């Protein structure tokens, strides 16, 4: 089940800092069977990195630097991708990349002709093959999150010590001897370190490495092992689990791996899994076991990819929603699933990697992200950290689009948060021809009155419609007028006048009206087609209305208008794939200039990385808990009226 | 191997506060086979407690109150046995007990006639049967250690809480709800508590008990379980392991059990066990496993005796020497066994009962006593705590007599400590007819020029000589002049004039001179007798010289003379059984008035109890570490000369 190839990359990497991703800019391509043009155009670009041979699939607009960094390919940099250090030199081996103004200053005309570019200035637009030179500097900072530069100060660190041997005149204990040599830290030792310290000091002739996490000496190793300090950031999603191995001494990502959650057989969403636990108490142990297996397999996978000994992984971080986190820690999630939606705790105590089933260093810690509420979980805390929501002067709206949609509004002075039950439409779950964003899923739909174009994931014939394809299809139908504002497919007789080339697709399946996206069999055989049904449209309307009601109420609480929002961040693995233009068209986000709406990428995973790289950022995540005021929607008397209002599509 | 009957009691309980034990005051009794009078006289007395049916064997001089308390029999008291509360009323059912002045004030003449006495005023001298009424008061303090009264303030505690149910208007997390109700403590929760809190709150209708150890919430239980708060104090000796179950809310000892160390097959003393680990690294794991087994079996035993659920044991304390402690924690003891004798650490980190193999509450803590040095271990820290060495204004000498003899001199202003390698003579190990203090061991020897009397442990014929019998025998021979000051058995021709009745016992076995204590076969058949050999005497001389050199050097370091010592405390399971008079006679302790030399009992176990009952006393044990200055003997140039001087017996 482990996926480490292109499919993973595609769902993990997206535009980072500021620029919107024009994923609906579909243009022509090869047509496949049954008459519909199915494009393989630039809604995604393929990047191939030499010499390590990694292929990455990203939305256009992501910089080469970010795409590399987020996929475990180290590129030299001291400024972290901000265009000031001019160290991120790469050579374009194949593909066309324009010369940026900064490139002209960084390279000679001959170098530019040879394809040399600064990776942080290369905004991807077409497929390229890139050669990355080996690292020459040791960075003091790393770029992670939404364009955030993090000064490296990991909790996990090592110190190489050459100690004096004890004598009758110097009977200091082994521990005292080691601690005295690390006198800038106030350390305590754990039992594991004490179990090895005596043997290791003597076997190593008192030349040892102290292994430290936070203020605890967790191990003592023979000789100098300071070059091996690693961490693993886990994004524990309901659907997908992603692991990133980081070199904590340089901030360099070393490997990325992901897999579908092994808990899927117990339900696609958290509510179904909570119900499964309620029905059969033994299910809790099984779900916990499956979470542990998922995390541990990924840990093994990234270590193997990078040739790292798991015992050198000294800390892991885990960002997940409240239910996934409870399950991973072996805690009954039932109270999260029924009103009044109570968590066991917001902040977690000290947890070891072993407590979440991850076999790395036996005393490695696990940083578990705290949750704001039952439906604003640790993934959101991590996401807000990655997005810098609490540091930015601009008033921003953070929307993590998914079955449960988390919404945070605010700036560095105040933050309001809530959760909206959007339902599973975006996962393709309640949609007739819906499917997950996997090979064969229609992920981009563009229409003119005469013509329809599709883009399919992978080298496969169309098999169904994933969330972004659903949003595209509905948005295009609204734009063309084939769907009215109330969400009703217009009568067939009216369609001919509105979009003559598409009208034949507007038809009936049994008692329900449908719009055919792709004929799988003979044109006209609706039962054998991929279609959008009237009920599918309703599902999407419910989802978008729930989300819109959420941010609408937050705006009211803040006394603001939509125009006061200076940036909308679309987060989560689905949010990152939404077309900002269509999100606006459907009313999923407030009506704003399209450039104010940007994809923020897999912010939960980025937040987890930040926590590993910097104790300061980790503390920031805890501080966030105090800064966000949670607004509960389910007990608001006006919720239903506002929800019904928001069911309409914007004019 | 578990011993919980009389034999145990006999080796654990001894005089407590101040009074010397006259264990050499042997008087007549039934003679057994082969001509030597073997007495069952008052060197020990049997106490039988009703209604719980416990039989206890103690040296005369122990108060009924102490004997009961140290054997898990609760007697009412608020003053802790100091004769002020007059609550420790018991009724003597069988046996003769004089009326004390306090009894006359506490009881009517009729009650006195019926046998009513205050238990703390009954100094045992003969066998008695006692009825103990049920408890009526809940004590605030307990008497433990060497007559020390400890205000109850255990780290383990429970709080019964009736909480408000959560609602949409009150979405505090489960943990916040519990912690808010315990607002006088600054608590954190551990993962175990969080794993159960949600289910327990809901199953118990929000009426729960918070289970707290120190500043950690370790559990949440349904309903009111505040009546069940227990701890187990372990005295982890090299030879014997003792466990005492305590009710931490009342300070009442509930049960005591002991067993021979399961590590015995790897050697009788710590050096042999360290050597075993050095020869075969796998031995460490086996010794650790055996320590865990011993501790866990005893824990099960005391819980079963008292009808206590092991899950209600919330904390354990363990006092042991440095080697035994290292082994129990799974730490290689090799550096303790070779110069320069280095410990892993003096202070231990947080350890769970599970880390030392004890299956009680899964999150129960283990208080592990810190060591001063490789040969002044946690048992001595516990012993000094129990003896109040750091609180007493008097200058006192604390001597824990054993294979390794620990010696501490000082008062509340200063403390000096050292360790002297006494060798195994006191364990009966290097002695020809030596044996452990078990059934059949000669434990008391008294002589006149004409006659010899023995006292044997248990209802058994004499089988060998244990440590206290050895000391008695040698002291009596010195007193009568059958041994000269240099430790040589006098010529047989001289013996007839010195002690005509004993002279025939002075004879030869092979090339060695021996003194026969008991004929097992025909009188005259030396090979079939229990005897003391010339070499046995030398072994004892080496042992006593090592000890005497130790305290002599400490006196010199302190600038004091022996007469400046106001009290000598004989500690350890062997020290407590030594006759103070004979200890003085042999020069094991300084030449002082005999009343200044007292038995202190099993102080290590008492210190462990104190740590469980009082956080303040526990902190005191840590403070002691800073207060004792360790004097290393092995690197002193003058050690050998002084040792040779001390080989002689005092004039």
Outline the fold blueprint.
Two copies of one chain form a homodimer.
Chain A: E1 2-3, H1 6-12, E2 38-39, E3 45-50, E4 54-58, H2 64-69, E5 89-94, H3 101-106, H4 109-113, E6 116-118, E7 128-131, E8 141-144, E9 148-151, E10 156-162, H5 174-181, E11 188-189, H6 191-203, E12 207-213, E13 216-222, E14 230-236, E15 240-247, E16 252-260, H7 270-279, H8 282-306, E17 313-320, H9 322-328, H10 334-337, E18 351-352, E19 365-368, H11 378-387, E20 396-400, E21 404-411, E22 414-421, E23 441-447, E24 452-456, E25 464-465, H12 467-480, H13 492-498, E26 506-509, E27 512-519, E28 529-533, H14 534-558, E29 567-571, H15 572-575, H16 580-586, E30 597-601, H17 603-613, H18 615-627, E31 628-630, H19 639-645
Parallel strand pairs in A: 2-24, 3-7, 11-13, 14-17, 17-19, 20-29, 22-31, 23-25, 29-30
Antiparallel strand pairs in A: 1-16, 3-4, 5-6, 5-7, 8-9, 10-12, 12-13, 14-15, 15-16, 18-19, 20-21, 21-22, 23-24, 26-27, 27-28
Helix pairs in contact in A: 7-8, 11-17, 11-18, 12-16, 14-19, 17-18
What percentage of the residues of chain A does DSSP assign to strands (E)? 15-25%
Total number of helical segments of chain A? 19
Structural class of chain A: alpha/beta
Helical proportion of chain A, percent range: 25-40%
Task: Count the E strands of chain A.
Answer: 31
Overall number of structural domains of chain A: 5
- Classify the oligomer: homodimer
Largest interface: which pair? A-B, 46 and 46 residues
Distance between the termini of chain A: 44 Å
Radius of gyration of chain A using CA atoms only: 26 Å
The main sheet of chain A comes to: 7 strands, mixed
Instruction: Report the principal-axis shape of chain A.
Output: globular
CATH topology of the largest domain in chain A: Nucleotidyltransferase, domain 5
Q: Please state the average pLDDT score of chain A.
A: 87
Spans where pLDDT lies below 50 across 5 or more residues of chain A: 1-35
What do we call the CATH homologous superfamily of the largest domain in chain A?
Answer: Domain of unknown function (DUF4445)
Strands across the major sheet of chain A, in which order?
A: 1-16-15-14-17-19-18
CATH architecture of the largest domain in chain A: 2-Layer Sandwich
Q: What would CATH call the class of the largest domain in chain A? A: Alpha Beta
